[in-house]
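User: quick one, fold this
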Amino acid sequence: MIKETLKLLCQILTLALVYFLTGNLCNFIGIPFEFGTIIWPPSGISLAAVLIWGMRVMPGVFIGAFCTNLYFISQLLGNADLLACFTAFVEALAAALQVFVGVALLHRLAHFPNSLASEKQIGLFFLTAMLSTLISPSISILTLTLTGQLSTHVALSHWIDWYMGDLIGIFIFTPLLLIWFYPTQHFARRRGVVSATIVITFLLTLNLVFYEFKEENKRVELEFEKDVLAINAKIEEQLFAHLNALKAIESFYAASMDINRTEFRAFVAHLFKDFSGIQALGFDQFVLDSQRIDFEKRIQQEGFLDFHITEHDANKALIPAAKRASYVVVNFIEPMNRNKKVFGFDMMSDPLRQEVLNHALNSNTITSTPKI
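Assistant:
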């Protein structure tokens, strides 16, 4: 009795371990397509194991499937939370139910055990596999969709991947294992020929899968590069448009002797209409320290009584700018209601902006600066 119990325990653990190892091998070598694979050996291995050892090793299917799914989901989503455990539990139940139904159908419809030699026997084997394999992908994909882990828009394609992976796994691995390990003489005479045929079929299928996978990756990379080029062109187009807006302001100042805020507001209003995406337009004035008091008084006389040249303190609060040789002050800025805080800000007070502004002054080129 103890010997039989230990034997059963070893069979269950062996099945669970083989399920886990072969399942993760598929994930490791790059066959997976997020949820489901093109070839899923555990489906065929578990069906063959239950046919050989009996229904008593069914716990091995559940344990192997649960551990495999939990590990895969945790790797895919980055954690193994309660939802991941629930999903793995449901998928393991679905995998075990699929094997149970597959074995029952093989016994009832295909009258297994038999030699799988006649066209009828082979056809019934394939039919029962196609019917039973509907179970796991249907329950699993439904669970993933209902729990929000999978979009309904891609549910069907993932169901097909899952179904085909299980089906191919059964077509290849179940006959191969039955031929070598089923306790009967039905398969003894044909082991070599059938095994060679199945192995060759498997290798050809695997080669086809990797070829398709490689071609799909190439297609995705080409699409990605195409999208990147399109986005890059769009960004360049927007940048040139914004540069044109700056050049328009430059020309506006070059053609005018004295510009007031009303004129500046009216001018840039047209630029906001013509150039989408611009958040603000302004003019920063270079002020020497010897000009600071007069500059501040002039702005205060325009109605901005609290105006001072400002800078950020350590907490990013605005304070009067420290004394320095020169300042680059935000003098005109529109829309004013959204940008009052930067009005009067000394761009040279920020070390990063100071470096960029000095580069622009020395090189006489347009240069981008960090956000204020």
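User: anything notable?
Assistant: The mean pLDDT is 83.
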